[in-house]
């Protein structure tokens, strides 16, 4: 086990003991809307995990089974982006290093590279595609380039015991494959994004690169659907709000982690849902519940 050192980005279990008092944000926000929505979903058989913390003070604003390990689909590629950002300092793995896609990397689902003619792209462009569209093909090419073992080692070094990128992106998962692309706990994920915002993951430059890639994200279908952003152009903020988020979508899985800053406060949040996606009504209820949490977060920061 790697011992934590100053600036290493390793998780400290005792950091919250040194945080100051919460200030600036409205004390009247009790997240009742979100609690009610998540409670209703849980009663109807949805597995729910959620957590939100004040970005400045670390104060826990609400939590629901935030220690539970949940499937998080594409959110696990954030761990890949961290490893890529750390390696950009290497001579043979710079931002402009060209990587080729191969038939073994091919996969459907999210992303646009599979629809483009370019057979090769620079490392930094592949990372941007993952941040912007959750590009599955770009993720597989970068996983092949850096290796899952390296991503896992970095994850362990950061002290994330309940969050992991488990596999390549696959169109179908067989008995010999990991059952999920990634898993994570809301507690781990809120810590990770808070540390990224503070420049504490690997180092300030690497954290900034990852935040920059994630700021391109266009999926505002879940929690962030409550914030009123233009999905295709919100990197510079709007009405005093600034968002960085990453979502994960799979059959019966909806998950989101993000940072929302506003005029009065900033929050880090994570919400994951696992449900029987047997009817459109079930899926829409999950998305409504996630947006209800988003409304509480918006009220807190704005």
Automatic annotation (TrEMBL):
<protein>
    <submittedName>
        <fullName>Serine hydrolase</fullName>
    </submittedName>
</protein>
<dbReference type="InterPro" id="IPR045155">
    <property type="entry name" value="Beta-lactam_cat"/>
</dbReference>
<feature type="region of interest" description="Disordered">
    <location>
        <begin position="1"/>
        <end position="23"/>
    </location>
</feature>
<dbReference type="GO" id="GO:0008800">
    <property type="term" value="F:beta-lactamase activity"/>
</dbReference>
<dbReference type="Pfam" id="PF13354">
    <property type="entry name" value="Beta-lactamase2"/>
</dbReference>
<dbReference type="GO" id="GO:0030655">
    <property type="term" value="P:beta-lactam antibiotic catabolic process"/>
</dbReference>
<dbReference type="InterPro" id="IPR000871">
    <property type="entry name" value="Beta-lactam_class-A"/>
</dbReference>
<dbReference type="GO" id="GO:0046677">
    <property type="term" value="P:response to antibiotic"/>
</dbReference>
<feature type="domain" description="Beta-lactamase class A catalytic">
    <location>
        <begin position="52"/>
        <end position="273"/>
    </location>
</feature>
<dbReference type="InterPro" id="IPR012338">
    <property type="entry name" value="Beta-lactam/transpept-like"/>
</dbReference>
<keyword id="KW-0378">Hydrolase</keyword>
<feature type="compositionally biased region" description="Basic residues">
    <location>
        <begin position="10"/>
        <end position="21"/>
    </location>
</feature>
